[in-house]
């Protein structure tokens, strides 16, 4: 029987519930070769950093229960014949829902308004007075008719684009891995596919849904901020490294970027008043964790039994 090590209790429960999985599954807070006498055939991992881990010789595959594979040494795995899977699309709905929630909440100053209300110590009749004050302090803006630029039209980007249209936004798109024409034809959801410079220039809101690679690293930087509209809102639910941390802090300070909603808080950004740091909650729903675990289990089962590699 094949053995799998996983780093998440929820994932274990889900894997165990898959009656047909036929895999022997056990818990490891973090996999280490030194204390691991079981020498698993495969590992399912969500967030644990696998870069510093020495893998056992029997290891055949690693499945990342999520989209990004930055916590796995993919090149080293490829060289040593360890197959790396991810679970594309399995958490797309969870991320889409949080992107759109944050977009509206940020536009209505909801994060600031709620935080302010929570700090009020007043009671009884003082509350109505403070509510009056809040109404004036946190006047927001509506998203209807505003232009949303979606960078990356894959599983998550396409869902965001689709639902933003239903919210009466004007949706434009760019995808770094497919041509403008292909993007246009593929996505009925995007009014207009265009170059990234055009998208930067036209968007009131920009949401980014691409992996972190050498090409996309720091794509939001001092130079690209210059092309953007003043007071643009940027949403980053992909990877922190897509945005140059120092440059975004400067752009937030000057008001060039009106708000930065990020699922990847860092020191420079957290202290900025107009940043909305979210503790990596994009994919954190019960449904998404289950979807990812199921997809990972199916991929590994098929691979370990038949040698077929199906990354879906
Ligand atoms: C992903 O890459 O899909 C996300 O980082 C998901 C997660 O939070 O695990």
Automatic annotation (TrEMBL):
Highest taxon of the source?
Bacteria
This entry's Gene Ontology molecular function terms read:
NAD binding; phosphoglycerate dehydrogenase activity
What protein family is recorded?
Belongs to the D-isomer specific 2-hydroxyacid dehydrogenase family.
UniProt keyword list: NAD, Oxidoreductase
Q: In which pathway does it act?
A: Amino-acid biosynthesis; L-serine biosynthesis; L-serine from 3-phospho-D-glycerate: step 1/3
Entry EC no(s): 1.1.1.399, 1.1.1.95
Protein known as: D-3-phosphoglycerate dehydrogenase
Q: What does this protein do?
A: Catalyzes the reversible oxidation of 3-phospho-D-glycerate to 3-phosphonooxypyruvate, the first step of the phosphorylated L-serine biosynthesis pathway. Also catalyzes the reversible oxidation of 2-hydroxyglutarate to 2-oxoglutarate.
Q: Which reaction is catalysed here? A: (2R)-3-phosphoglycerate + NAD(+) = 3-phosphooxypyruvate + NADH + H(+); (R)-2-hydroxyglutarate + NAD(+) = 2-oxoglutarate + NADH + H(+)
């Amino acid at each position: 029987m094949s053995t799998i090590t996983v780093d998440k209790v929820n994932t274990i429960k889900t894997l165990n519930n898959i009656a047909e999985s036929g895999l022997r599954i056990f818990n490891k807070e973090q996999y280490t070769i030194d204390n691991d006498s079981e020498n698993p055939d495969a590992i399912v991992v969500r967030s644990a950093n696998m870069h510093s881990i020495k893998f056992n010789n029997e290891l055949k595959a690693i499945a990342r229960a999520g989209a990004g594979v930055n916590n796995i040494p993919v090149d080293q795995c490829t060289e040593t014949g360890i197959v790396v899977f991810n679970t594309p699309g399995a958490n797309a709905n969870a991320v889409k829902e949080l992107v759109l929630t944050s977009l509206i909440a940020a536009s209505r100053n909801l994060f600031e308004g709620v935080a302010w209300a929570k700090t009020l110590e007043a009671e009884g009749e003082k509350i109505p007075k403070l509510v009056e004050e809040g109404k004036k302090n946190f006047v927001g803006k509506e998203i209807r008719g505003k232009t949303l630029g979606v960078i990356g039209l894959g599983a998550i980007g396409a869902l965001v684009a689709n639902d933003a249209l239903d919210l009466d936004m004007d949706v434009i798109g760019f995808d770094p891995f497919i041509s403008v024409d292909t993007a246009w034809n593929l996505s009925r959801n995007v009014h207009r596919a265009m170059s990234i410079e055009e998208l930067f220039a036209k968007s009131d809101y920009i949401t980014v849904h691409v992996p972190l690679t050498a090409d996309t690293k720091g794509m939001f930087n001092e130079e690209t901020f210059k092309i953007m509209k003043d007071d643009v809102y940027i949403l980053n639910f992909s990877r922190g490294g897509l945005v140059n941390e120092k440059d975004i802090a400067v752009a937030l300070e000057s008001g060039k970027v009106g708000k930065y909603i990020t699922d990847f808080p860092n020191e420079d950004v957290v202290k900025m008043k107009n940043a909305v740091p979210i503790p990596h909650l994009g994919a954190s729903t019960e449904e998404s964790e289950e979807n990812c675990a199921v997809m990972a289990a199916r991929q590994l089962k098929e691979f370990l039994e038949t040698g077929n590699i199906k990354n879906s």
